[in-house]
Amino acid sequence: PLPAPLGLPAAVPEQRDRGAAALARITTLQPRSYKEARTIGEHYRDGQPVIMNLTELDAADAKRLVDFAAGLAFALRGSIDKVTNRVFLLTPADVEVSADDARKLAERGLYRSEG
Description:
With 115 residues, the chain is of the alpha+beta class. It contains four helices and four strands, in the order H-E-H-E-H-E-E-H. The chain has a four-stranded mixed beta sheet with strand order 1-2-4-3, with helices on one face. Strand 3 and strand 4 form a beta hairpin.
């Protein structure tokens, strides 16, 4: 049997470092129309977590953006999490956001709870 590649164990800390760096540069967007979906997609595609605040949108556009973001997260193997009724966190595949991270984001005012 062949030995395991030497680079594999080192990949885990690098991913964590990248995840921590991406979390530090999280992008918060508050779109006012569906036309801003591209901006959300570009930040997410570049590996940045995105907080998407949809409180300024009507129900139809908010639903369209959630559907768009869910498709984006699926296609890029990331995740989408509901923070409040109208605030969502898009997390790239190589970034981990724990409950503690979410709490820290809230403390920094990056999103506010609506409930």
